[in-house]
Amino acid sequence: MNIIVCIKQVPETTSVRINPETNTLIREGVKSIINPFDMYAIEEAVRLKERFGGKVTVVTMGPPQADAALREAISMGADEGVLVCDRAFAGSDTWATSYTLSGAIKKIGVFDLVICGKQASDGDTAQVGPGMATHLNIPQVTYVKKVEEATDKLMRVERMLEEGYEIIETPLPALLTVVKEINEPRIPSLKGMLRAKSAKITVWGQKDLDLDPQNIGLCGSPTQVVKIFTPAQRLGGQIIKGEAPEIASQIVELLRSEVN
Amino acid sequence: MDYLLTDEQKMIKELAHKIAEEKVRPVAAKHDISEEYPWDVLKVIGESDLFGLFIPEEYGGMSVNIMNLCLATEELSRACGGIAVCYAASALGTFPIVLFGNEEQKKKYLPDLAKGKKVAAFAITEPEAGSDASAIKTTARKEGDYYILNGLKHFITNGGDAETYSVIAMTNKDKGARGASAFIVEKGTPGFTFGKKEDKFGIRASSTRELIFTDCKIPAKNLLAKEGMGFIVTMRTFDMSRPGVAAQALGIAQGALELAVKYAKERHQFGKSISSFQGIQWMLADMATEVEAARALVYACARAIDAGVKDVSKESAMAKMYASDVAMKVSVDALQIFGGYGYMKDYPIEKYVRDAKITQIYEGTNQVQRNIIGLQLIREMAK
What is the CATH number of domain A2-215? Predict the structure, then answer.
């Protein structure tokens, strides 16, 4: 089973501070880590490889220092790393990012599965995974918490919902996004770390990928950040006490008066 | 201080640190209370290849390197001296096979020990033979293709949980120290049973048990080296393992120091952080200096061994003695900085005091280490 894992390097959220004037992240001096949700994606890919054989290729789009994230994934058992890196990609929103990454995946060519974390801890959009599936025109299953079975052609997974889960069977190739319930990411091995240190990371820029220049980077990004602000704290609130029927009628009354 | 570690050594330190913080520290108090052997943690350590640091590559390890082993032991001990010693004691039990095992013995035992699938233990101490190791009474009598072991070992770290034991027994009582031999004994051998598990002051995550040999019949091919080599095997093993005990002590001291600095910053009295008081700062300054001095000595000793320096008995005794004395002093001072809270089991610092104490006692009490150093000084003068 040939698996592609798409990961993102993010600032370690526990140590992030916000610039109060611009409301943007202060990135200086903050350690970069692999997006925590992507760790589950890497672990699941390595486990599937251990079960079914094949190869795990990790892909990330980012600045040159994102190389470290790919090496960390290799130390956990991934085989190869691809860094999608070009000034032309800077400023990409989720749409342009998923378009660009899908271009890299097309260039890799043969694959059975793409796995992503459910979302990145910095942007929190959960859009890049589904976006890639759309650009690649393959089925997607989001919020996967367990891979039950897999063959060459099919995979059966459990998809987490707010209450319970659903079992979905999808033809392959497909794209999964995974939640933290799916596994416990391993600690790398020393042999893995040594392998990662000397591993060759493939770097692809705009000229290496077959992409429409209109759809990449800042100009290819329909999302515009107009303003960033901290929402005002909600004040007070009202606690209604009593038996359920009483409370219900009081709530109805309150809602009515709000509407009027 | 920058110890100019190689890239591989930095990786080992980083990896052991990660295991210590993510897998060891969260369960340290639990194991201290329950005395349950930390198999889950050892499994992670095994999968991370760290058991390979004391085993040659051709037998599934990462090659034998005392400095690397010290780095891993130090980092693990920062989080829990008890869990770390389960790891370090496996190195102690494995060294006799690495140093003196023949090809067949190495092939049979080392691969599983390198992966942490099994752990090892070293057994010389007996109720009447502690610092005076030559007083051991356990016997091994040759009968055809077998040796028959009889006797009692006690205070054996990893005893009962280890699968592979390096055991020292007398093959010829008349020859005194030259009559001792070393054997590999597997758990489950008929006649080999375990006595009581000790209820200890510290390092409670580790197991310490009696080993009882009652007409225990082991194949003659389990003899390590030759008959009569038992004490040479022991001395060479201790030369390799002593820096590991020093590294364990160093890790405990470092861990206690870090907790003390953190607490001093957080704790407020008289309207300010107690870290702003000179009295506290001076304590922390002394503690940090002593820890650094211990580290310099331990690393220098480990590197000398790796570089093949022949006689390191004196330096290795110095490293073990000094690092463990520092661990004791620093952990006690760290508790003092915690004040009344430090005395309570709700806080992690009192465990460091308990864990530190054993490092002054086992693998040669610090008084025995001083004997080694003193004797060596006199010998050098006589040359």
Answer: 3.40.50.620
